[in-house]
Design goal:
three-stranded mixed β-sheet; 455 residues; mainly alpha; 18 helices; globular; 69% helix; homotrimer
């Protein structure tokens, strides 16, 4: 893990060379206020964005981290490596996104504020999605390398979609979710382990690890309205994004429960579906969150996503593993891949169908930012660009994933053997409990040790 | 669970027919701003309410959900069904509360914004309270039916208390807690299972399930100030409600610890009390949260609630089960029932005692909304109405609960047998761990399977 | 625990005699608005401070509480006693800090508002830090007594540092962390138990208790930017504090992972480091959070703290236990002690080096509050006072800790025997699981019971 040390040193140097505070963060703010005729400190973007930022921050570290703790002996790795790559990713994302979006032309410096922190968290979300596909099958060094490349690609893709194509993607259905998911699936496809199924008996949950995972699920679910609204336009846009997401997620929960029990043997509910598919509505409403989707529109999106995502877990994931040689540990294709694509399509359709009667003249301009270079764009054309954006996100994901997968296949990174997959023992000091007062657990541990000795 | 599917479809249709965005959410907001002379986006209610909303949202899904995970083998059901009925309840509540409170007379539509989301979460809180009484003894379909009726009744009761009687109930001691608790207790009374005690050995905790429950407790405790202040008047009212709740809860913790150790055999603390009674102060200060209760007044309320609630767990709950045939799984009578009633009484007394010297002339009018139809009401009269409101809440709870309990007794809903109570195995795919690397757990599972076979 | 009862009664009386609402909380707010020419309710400090307050509140109760649940059989004590002493401490802190800082000279009353709640939470943080040193080795009554004295000392120390010396300490590196840590270590030194190591086999973790502890770690880590910015000046100061903390913490994570794996036998990661050292950067950036530390400066601080803190766990903690007779259960010296001192030094240096070109003329005055009595102070002089403040904090900690330690050694407080340390059985009704359906756990329990019988 010396790589952490080296990279953190690099971060210090790069931040020293390139990153400064923006005008709302800098101590010259009193002068800025006078200069820009700002009357109150409340107009500092901090007060508009910070509560949403904190919700997003919880999603990244507790949400994603705990969602992946479901495995019986990979909880340390799930929450720990999630922590590591997110902490690295946000720094690298501040730089990469800064170079593409926030260069101050007067001094060539990246100027950061609270909105940059949100965007960095967003970027890292796509890395954590990809992490879900390879969970338990790669080394921490591989994860660091993957994150390095994925953040870089993300910044390029985001620049193309948001700036060049001028597509809308408030909650990142395309930019974050579709991209991250197909990236992760491509990596997992390249790193296919044909003998994994037979050798590993650890790819499953125990009772309490499933409860831990619900912590992740619920914090993701609750704060998703903040995620989708965090960088929306102030006022009605932010308000609308939160409400659309809230409604879509509520609908998803019901269809997930319905499908989970109806399509299972014995008619019992499956925790995997409840932990994951209930979130699909939040993904799918992301692109269009800021649009006039209407409350029932949001419910419809959530309705179908719960349905498709749960069916994906039941039928598609086993099919992908068997036939397509894609091993998707957390089922990110069902939670982020398909819902992300649906989100892109919903965005394209609802943009194309936007009218002045629904949005108001100024509302239409504000929502789609038909200003400056884009002031002559019509909703129909915007719809086309939205669709194009979705294709770009998926292409970048698949292409980038294959490339990075090939890099990760080099025998340099200390990846675990098939037998060591999904096992914290390889990278963590797991409590041995040999001196425990508890003879049963002690016995248990001896057995595990013996098993390892046999291998 | 096909019922989820059907009801979600109904929700889509009803939202399509009746629900639209309010003016702060609609894309016509730029026109609204000009029309209503609003100068800044910060005046959009989103920025006043959203952080509180998110805190309340956490209480509903993580707070209530995890509080009920304390049982050794019903954690999936606790957190999962909590999730299901809350997600359904908020949609139905948006409709029901909308019809009573937020119809736009110009077009007959329900207009929703962030305040409606908070109110929907509040309504669902009363359902989750009732869930606590029947936890582990009903099927998910029964819970859905119970929620459907309870939300409906809640909307009626709330309309009577807040609009017709014009009582104050910022934190819902009466409207939410007393109503929800007596509703749940009445349902549980109708569904009494005489042989439950003997048959079930699962009605208890294990070490780690008690720790999980503390997650619920703490998120409820910490965010209760947000709950009680979420829909208060802006400015001093909201500020005061938060501080009163903070103080009351702090006092409750100390008396709960004191009583728990003093009245137990061995002088040891009981996790059940710490998990539940520490919250009673938040319930009891709800109605009067916005009033000039004064800091010491809040402490006094919290002081007595910790005391009464803990004693309730020690003496009253066993008595109710033995003599009154009310099986109250989570002890909601101690956490929500009695404290809710106390809250109503505190509210009535402090309203009746309100004076212009304490509140200021304008402050008195603002706090009690002595405006329009109610502009001639005096504090003393208000106190009377507050007391009446409390009686209505309890009556609605008991009456509605008996009615709904009778509906739930119909042999339609797949309720579990006495032997299957408090057991996730009935409704969930519980991890079997047969292919586990862990022989002890495997052994354990075999035994469980055998036990079931014998039954 | 009758002490809880008595003290809570005292709190009621003292609050009745001394504590009132401040003008932003009082119902006379409408008059205040007119009088002070405040145009909007949004200017009520509630809307500036409350979201940060709630984040801090989560850190105190969930963050600290769960961070300490790592031990296999002391999770109830960790989260429960944390709850108890925090709930008591905030009340006592409101009084003590009120007497020193918030007396209204017109009527001699303490006037409280949301900022006081934040400060009370801050004060309690120092008590919970000290709790970490003695975790598992003291009785709840001892903890209550310790908290009573520590809060009192804290208020004095805080008054000297912030008001008399006029040092800056936004995030409390000195006032909270260094003071709390050295206080706790001094108490632990006085209460040294020479035979603890041999007798206790419970001072360690199990798999799931380590995952519980990560809940605490992550909520502390995520909300630390709110902690350090919660009482900063509005606008740029608050904004800057949040960003500096965010960056510092991110850097700490990487160096912690690096050192943890590089300096361990087998090259494996140690959960203790990940749970604790990753937070050191938040501590160390506290004093200077509001300064123009620059993004790279924050990274550098975080970089070194991750390094020093992790090395502390590996080398210093065992040394302190063996040679200095200081038993530091949670390693607070590595998480709060050293990083707190570093934070003080960073603050002194960056204050001394502050220039008008970096801060702007008004910015310099605002940031260091060079106003009124202190309007002629220069940055260089301020640097000297910052250094003095750090020495005062450490001295108060050590001196106070020794004093309070001596009080706690009196044979009055029912402290546990060496054999009972780190064991919830002494103070809690731990679920016995004798009637469990699970023969393995049952067997396990019998054994534990036997072991106890032998003792």
């Amino acid at each position: 893990m010396a790589v952490c040390f080296v990279w953190q040193t690099a971060m210090v140097i790069l931040f020293g060379a390139f990153v400064r505070y923006n005008k709302e963060v800098d101590a010259h703010w009193p002068e800025t206020k006078i200069h820009e005729n700002i009357t109150s400190d409340i107009e500092n973007d901090f007060y508009f964005r910070y509560p949403s930022f904190q919700d997003v921050h919880v999603m990244i570290f507790v949400g994603f981290g705990f969602l992946m703790t479901f495995m019986k002996r990979y909880s340390f790795g799930a929450v720990g490596f999630n922590f590591l790559i997110a902490a690295f990713g946000i720094q690298w994302a501040l730089l990469m996104q800064g170079w593409f979006h926030h260069i101050d032309s007067t001094d060539g410096m990246i100027k950061i504020g609270v909105e940059n922190l949100i965007n960095a968290d967003f970027c890292v979300a796509s890395c954590l999605i990809a992490f879900g596909a390879v969970l338990g099958k790669v080394s921490p060094v591989q994860l660091m390398v993957m994150t390095l490349f994925e953040v870089t690609l993300f910044a390029v893709e985001e620049y193309i979609i948001l700036n060049l194509i001028h597509a809308n993607d408030a909650g990142g259905s395309m930019v974050i979710h579709a991209f991250g998911a197909y990236f992760g699936l491509a990596v997992s496809w390249v790193l296919y382990r044909p003998n994994l199924k037979e050798s590993s008996q650890l790819n499953g949950s125990v009772y309490h690890s499933d409860v831990f995972a619900m912590i992740g699920t619920l914090f993701l679910w609750m704060f998703w309205p903040s995620f989708n609204s965090a960088i929306c336009k102030h006022g009605d846009g932010q308000h609308r994004a939160a409400i659309n997401t809230y409604l879509s997620l509520a609908a998803t929960v019901l269809t997930t429960f319905a499908i989970s029990s109806l399509f299972q043997k014995h008619g019992k509910l499956d925790m995997v579906h409840i932990q994951n598919s209930t979130l699909a509505g939040g993904v799918a409403v992301g692109t269009a969150a800021e649009f006039m989707l209407m409350p029932y529109g949001s419910l419809i999106v959530g309705f179908f996503c719960g349905l498709i995502s749960t069916l994906g877990y039941i039928y598609l994931t086993p099919f992908m593993e068997r036939k397509l040689k894609i091993q998707d540990t957390c089922g990110i294709h069902n939670l982020h891949g398909m819902p992300g694509v649906i989100g892109g399509i919903v965005g394209a359709i609802s943009a194309a169908g936007a009218t002045e009667s629904v949005y108001g003249q100024q509302g239409l301009i504000n929502t789609f930012v038909f200003k400056d270079d884009f002031k002559h764009r019509t909703p129909a054309v915007q719809g086309g660009y939205q669709a194009a954006a979705m294709c770009i996100a998926v292409s970048f994901g698949i292409g980038g994933g294959i490339l990075v997968g090939l890099i990760l296949r080099m025998p340099l990174w200390g990846d675990p053997t098939d037998d060591n997959c999904f096992d914290d023992e390889v990278y963590w000091e797991v409590p041995e409990e040999e001196d425990s007062a508890d003879p049963v657990l002690q016995y248990n541990n001896h057995t595990v040790v013996n098993k390892h000795a046999e291998v």
